[in-house]
Amino acid sequence: MSDISSLIRSCDEWITPELLKVFDQSDSSDITVKAAMYSLMAGGKRIRPLMMKMTLEMIGKPGIEPDVRYYAATLEMIHTYSLIHDDLPAMDNDDLRRGKPTCHKAFGEGFAVLAGDLLLNSACERLLKTAMEKPEYSYASYMMAKLAGIDGMIGGQSIDLASEDKKISLDLLVELQDKKTGALIRSAIVTPYYLANKTTAVSASDDAVLALLLKLSSHIGLIFQIKDDILDVTSSAEVLGKNVGKDERDEKSTFVTLLGFDEAVSRLNLEAEGAMEVLRQLGDIGYNTSDYEVLIDYLVNRDK
């Protein structure tokens, strides 16, 4: 069984060459491209590409590895654009991300907006290009774009903004985070499966493996967010690489503020148990889930 450090290091070596070539060299002197690359290459754990790599290895389809890596870089572009915009004064108003000044602090608000726009637009170009060249991947491209939109990440961000200075219900908070954080995690976990099966359109009710992958993604999305809420209370900016105490400062509804600290920890452990049960079921039908087990343990116990 691998340890989390080797998994993250292996993923970084796997995805970095793809990220470095997402823009043409001829455009590298443009300040908006520089701002986009500043954030894209700012480091981080690359959890979403890691999950795409892990799903690929779990389902045993090495022949599509270059395609999965291409989609993983595309998803990381979408994720990074969302962070750039989320850090802006009009959104979360943050000045620190991954231990570095946020994009708008380094390049100004205007170029930060453009850098986020560029990353999203370029990601869509990549999805369309692949769908044209390989029509059997059209559904995978469509679903990645959809999960970044109003039915996914943007929808969650919209609920988040509309809920500022309000105490919302736990059900609405779960919906918010299932979209804002969970949607791109869902995209990461299921996209390699779509690519491997050349999926055109499928219902989880007709595909037992897909249903399990979707359940796994829901649990992991909530694990990730609940732990983030806990770390906002318990960690420091030096350890976390971003400002802490923001939730209290902004009077945001979080799993900690709604449930209390101890109950939030209990909910975190409950989601981890649910994720492990899904992995057990995947193991029962022949999949090697050991790396996902390592990842879940890390997400529950991480300090940053």
Structural key phrases:
304 residues, mainly alpha, two-stranded antiparallel sheet, Farnesyl Diphosphate Synthase
Plain-language structure description:
- 41% of the residues are buried.
- This protein is mainly α.
- The longest helix is centred in the C-terminal third of the chain and has 27 residues, at 208-234.
- It has a two-stranded antiparallel ribbon.
- The chain contains 16 helices and 2 strands.
- The chain has one domain (4-301): Orthogonal Bundle (Farnesyl Diphosphate Synthase).
- The model has no long low-confidence stretch (mean pLDDT 92).
- It has helices at residues 4-19, 31-40, 47-59, 65-86, 103-107, 109-133, 138-147, 153-162, 170-180, 182-197, 208-234, 237-240, 246-249, 255-259, 261-284, 290-301, and strands spanning 96-97, 100-101.
- The chain starts with a helix and ends with a helix.
Sum up the overall morphology in one term: globular
Low-confidence stretches: none
Describe the sheet with the most strands. 2 strands, antiparallel
**Nearest-integer average pLDDT:** 92
Helix content: over 70%
- The CATH top-level class label: Mainly Alpha
Sheet-strand content, in percent, reads under 5%
Q: What name does the CATH topology carry?
A: Farnesyl Diphosphate Synthase
**How many distinct beta strands?**
2
Oligomer: single chain
Integer count of domains: 1
